[in-house]
Amino acid sequence: MTEFDQDSIVAILGEAGGAPRAAVDAVQYHGLTALLNGTAPTVGEIASLSGLGVSDIEDGIEALGEVGRIDLDGDRVIGVGGLTLTPTVHSLRLPNAEMHTWCALDAVGIPAALGLTATVETRCPQCGDRITVELDRGKAATAGPVTLFCPTAPCDNVRADFCAAANLFCSPAHMARWRADNPSAAGEDLDLAATVDLGHAMWGHYKHEPSARG
Ligand SMILES: [Zn+2]
């Protein structure tokens, strides 16, 4: 079990089980960049892009799967690093591609960290209202005082334990009401600027291709 704080959230993107770090990095980096371009890469494509062997990439995928951090369709990676082609309540629209994300932090943090122009749409879990965040080359703006619930509870499976609760609320008041109805949910309130900052810490290194050594 991992106790979440913001440093450990950053750290989980960089480690996964016993697989070689380079393989995990390659799957996450090449998976994420392919998905941002609207394509789901195969194991073989990630191997050739990274210069690693197919069996290394398969080990990396298996390690990510054990902690709930990859979606596969056959031998294609359709979700990794927070992005997914499987529909969720959080959508991310880029100029040339449209996808979903595992949580609201992914939806805002990924385009913020990578300096992308994008439109994020999600819904407030308390009232169901649509929330739109516009990003202009990584700078985020939204209409109201949106607040992210950033879980700090113990976590075995990123998507089940963290992503399911990491939602954007339309206002601090609606988060307070949701907290009152969900007293066991442990987490921090982050405003949009703090959400962007956490996004930079989590995904900033995806601006650069990882080294194949390591
Ligand atoms: Zn609301």
Walkthrough of the structure:
By secondary structure, the chain is α+β, with helices and mostly antiparallel strands. It folds into two domains: 6-81, Winged helix-like DNA-binding domain superfamily/Winged helix DNA-binding domain (Arc Repressor Mutant, subunit A); 91-203, 2-Layer Sandwich (Beta-Lactamase). 39% of the residues lie in helices and 23% in strands. The chain contains eight helices and eleven strands. The protein has helices at 6-12, 21-36, 43-50, 54-66, 104-114, 158-163, 172-181, 192-203, and strands spanning 70-73, 76-80, 83-84, 91-94, 97-101, 118-123, 130-136, 139-142, 147-151, 168-169, 187-191. The strands form two sheets. An eight-stranded antiparallel β-sheet has the order 1-2-3-5-4-6-7-8. Strands 10-9-11 form a three-stranded antiparallel β-sheet. A hairpin with a 2-residue loop joins strand 7 and strand 8. The protein starts with 5 loop residues before the first helix and ends in an 11-residue tail after the last helix. The mean pLDDT is 88. The protein binds zinc ion (ZN).
SSE topology sketch:
Elements: H1 6-12, H2 21-36, H3 43-50, H4 54-66, E1 70-73, E2 76-80, E3 83-84, E4 91-94, E5 97-101, H5 104-114, E6 118-123, E7 130-136, E8 139-142, E9 147-151, H6 158-163, E10 168-169, H7 172-181, E11 187-191, H8 192-203
Antiparallel strand pairs: 1-2, 2-3, 3-5, 4-5, 4-6, 6-7, 7-8, 9-10, 9-11
The chain binds zinc ion.
Ligand inventory: zinc ion
User: Number of domains in the coordinates?
Assistant: 2
Mean pLDDT: 88
CATH class of the largest domain: Alpha Beta
Distance between the termini: 26 Å
Strand content: 15-25%
**Class by helix and strand content?**
alpha+beta
Q: Tell me the series of helices and strands, N- to C-terminal.
A: HHHHEEEEEHEEEEHEHEH
Based on DSSP secondary structure assignment, what is the total number of beta strands?
A: 11
Query: Roughly how many Å is the radius of gyration?
Result: 17 Å
CATH architectural group of the largest domain: 2-Layer Sandwich
Rough outline: globular
Q: List unreliable stretches of 5+ residues.
A: none
Strand order of the largest sheet: 1-2-3-5-4-6-7-8
CATH topology of the largest domain: Beta-Lactamase
| Share in helix | 25-40%
Number of helices: 8
What kind of sheet is the major sheet? 8 strands, antiparallel
